[in-house]
Structure formats: C-alpha cells, structure tokens
Amino acid sequence: MVSLPKLTPRSGPLCSASLGRSPDGRGGRVRRLLPNVYEGWLVVAASAFYITLTSGAINYGFGTIFVPLRAEFGWSVAATALAFSLRQEASGIAAPFIGIINDRFGPQRTVALGVVIISGAMLGLSFIHSIWQFYAAMLLISVGASSVGGPVGMAAVTTWFDRRRARALALMTIGGGLAGVMVVPIAALVTGLGWRDALRVEAAILLTAGLVPAFTTRFRPPEHPQPMDGLPPMVTDGVVQPPMVRWGIPVRQAVRTRSFGLLTLGLAGISFGTATVTVLQIPYLESIGISPAAAASTVAFYALSSLIGRLGFGFLADRFNKRIMLATCTAMIASGLALLPLVHSVWQAFGALLLLGPGFGGTVPVRAAMIADNYGTRYFGTLNGIATFVRTIGSGLGPLAVGYIVDRSGLYGTGWLLAAGVVAAGLIAVIIERAPAALRDEWRGRAEQSAALEASPPRPV
C-alpha cells in the first residue's frame, strides 16, 4: 500500500477558513453519523435543500404576487418590475462581498445569516403600504439571497470534487429546479390567504427549515480522511497520484484575463433573458388570456424542465468541453425567447419553455464548473461573486427593459425579441472565450510545489 502524504495547512485565519476548517465541528459530526457516505455528497444535499426553499420563495414565488401587488396599489408593470430588478442588482453588488465573507468565515455562518435576513425581510414585506417600502424589503431580501444562494453552496461543493465536479454541481442545483414546483402551493397560499398572509407563512417556514442544513455545509478540510470525490486515488503507470491540491489564480490576476471578461459578459447576456422570463412569464401569459392557474403551471413546468438541463449538461460537462456545453445551453435560451411572441395557448408556451428550461438549467452547473476549472477553487467564492455581480447587471436590466417596452407599447413580443437578441450576443462571447491555460498551469504548479515542501520531513540539523 502506498502511503499518501498528509498535507499540513498554512497558518493564518484566511487559510484556515478558506480551506474549510469548521470551528464548531458540526460538519464533522454529520460525517460521523453517516460514516459510509462521502461527506461531499452530504454538502451537495444540504445545499440543494436550502436552495430549494429560498429559490422557491424568491425567484419563483414572487411571480405569484406580481399581479396582486399591481391590483392593490395600482403600480405600473415597469414600477413593479423595477423592484425585482433592484433585487437582482443589489444581489449582484453584494455577491463579491458575500464571496469574500464566505472564503473567510465559511459557508455555515454565511448561510445561517442569510436565512435569518431573508425571513425577516419577507415578514417585513407583508406589512408594506408604499412602493419605497416594497423596494426596501426587496433590497434586504436580495442581500439574504446572496448569502444563501447557489454561489455559496457552489464554493463549498467545488472543494469536495474534482473528477466529478460538474455532476456534483448539477445535483446541487437540482434545488433550483425543484424550487419551481413550490410556485403551485405558493400560488394557492396567495389565492387562499392573500399575498400578505402568504408571505408570513413563507417567512416562518424559511426560518425554521432553512437553518438546519446550513450547519452541514462546509469547505473540505485539507486533512479530511475521505479521498477526493469519494473515489480511490488515481493510478498512473502503477503510481498512486497524490491528493488533489487546492489551488487558485489570485483574484486580481484572474479578473484581468480576457477569458474572465468574455465569460462574465456572456453570463450577463444569458441572465438578461432568463430573469425576464422568471419575472414576466406569468403576467405575459395572463395578458394573452391564459388563466392564473394555468400560467402558474407553466412556471412549474419551466423549473422542472430545467432539471433536464442541470443533470444532463452537468454530467456531460465532466466528459466534454464545458465551453461548448455552455454555448449549447445559451443557443437554446435564445431560441426559446424568440418563440415566445408566437405563443397563443398554454400548450404553445410549454413548447417554448421546453427550450428555455433545459437551456437555463444547464448553464447553472456548467458556468460554476468552468470558473473552478479555469481559475481554481481557492478564490472561487470571490471570483464567482464577481461573476454573479456582472451577471446580475443583465438580470436586472432584462425585466426593467422589457417592462418598459410593455408599458409604452403594450406588446410583450417586442420585449421577448429584444431579450433573444441580447442572449445571442452573450452566445458570441461564450463561443470565443478560451481558458487562461498558462496562468492556470503556473498557479496549480505553485500550489503542488508548496504542498510537496510542506509534506516533506524536516532536514536533520
């Protein structure tokens, strides 16, 4: 049996937190309860659970209160959509800072704080009486969402997987797809209790159920006894390969690369289209005569169909070029948006969403896997936060621009075509993007050399 070297972490608070040392040890206790299960999969399951709760309530559930809010307060489509755009923008602005906090203190505290903020802000939203209160509540919710959302879970998951990274991210992001199913009971709550009491019920559920999985989500410690991916070490020419070393291109260097600029630009274009669908899908379908219940069912269909993309493209991305996978997803989104103006029935809506859902779903794990592969996992939280900030510029502008077009012309079709064009521009950026191979090899080599030096026995004096 080949003895593998035990890596010793560098000293210092940043390294201790970023390499996953859990001060309270809760992650380790969960592993001891399930010793035969690779802890990385427990982190995946916990992340998927709280993402389901928060995404269902925020990303999908808020579409059910769009029409009731306008009916009660008389706000325009653009003014109401502005709150959702502000939420996206505030979430994007907060994302880099949340990434730094996550890299520094770990996902356990970050997620727990986010759950408390979202629950409190959602409760406050149920008491609003003016549009500025609406905007303020949505801004607070956005900060909480940044702390609980996919990027925080992704930062943890990427440290547990290397060979199975894309599929692990795909399984984690199932929570985002399953969240769409929650729109049906949320819509029933809004119909039965009114939008105010429905929000109060949601806030209580989020607080009580969201804190439990938060303490299972942690970074992989360097001395963890289970092998990376939960798989036996790789053997090349009869030699057991050393454990995967956590490496990363420094943030300042990474953000200056052409690769990072093109990737984030492409993601912003994609988000312009997908956020517009999320916010305006129900109002659009109701405007062409589809009942509220049927319109809500298309949201559930959109979310469930995204699971096909999350799982399918997530597994494919571990075998094939991730950039090509992302480009394929982007082309599907642009095509689906271009079909929306032709929709006149709920069945035609399902047809367009059959392209939009899997296309959107596939982008979620693939984009995170690309960032981890291209720039490493050591600064993943910060880099993914910066990418999220740029991406949310698109997701904030999309609903606002299309909502403005609807208010001015009364035509959703023109807005959908605009969104399709912006996504197509993002597709071009994705196609011409190339990984920073030289920088990647340099910093990975430095990390491996440093780990080898730390693992070697001290020289006798």
Could you explain the architecture of this structure?
With 461 residues, the protein is mainly α. Helices cover 74% and strands 1% of the residues. It is built from 20 helices and two strands. It has a two-stranded antiparallel ribbon. Strand 1 and strand 2 (239-240) form a beta hairpin. Helix 11 runs antiparallel to helix 12 (195-214) and helix 16 (322-339) packs antiparallel against helix 19 (412-432). The two termini are 31 Å apart.
Concise account of the structure shown:
The chain has helices at 13-18, 26-33, 39-60, 66-73, 77-105, 107-125, 131-148, 150-160, 165-172, 174-178, 183-193, 195-214, 251-254, 258-287, 292-317, 322-339, 346-375, 380-409, 412-432, 437-455; strands at 235-236, 239-240.
What are its keywords?
mainly alpha; disordered N terminus; 20 helices; two-stranded antiparallel ribbon; 1% strand; 461 residues; single chain
Give the helices and strands, then pairings.
Layout: H1 13-18, H2 26-33, H3 39-60, H4 66-73, H5 77-105, H6 107-125, H7 131-148, H8 150-160, H9 165-172, H10 174-178, H11 183-193, H12 195-214, E1 235-236, E2 239-240, H13 251-254, H14 258-287, H15 292-317, H16 322-339, H17 346-375, H18 380-409, H19 412-432, H20 437-455
Antiparallel strand pairs: 1-2
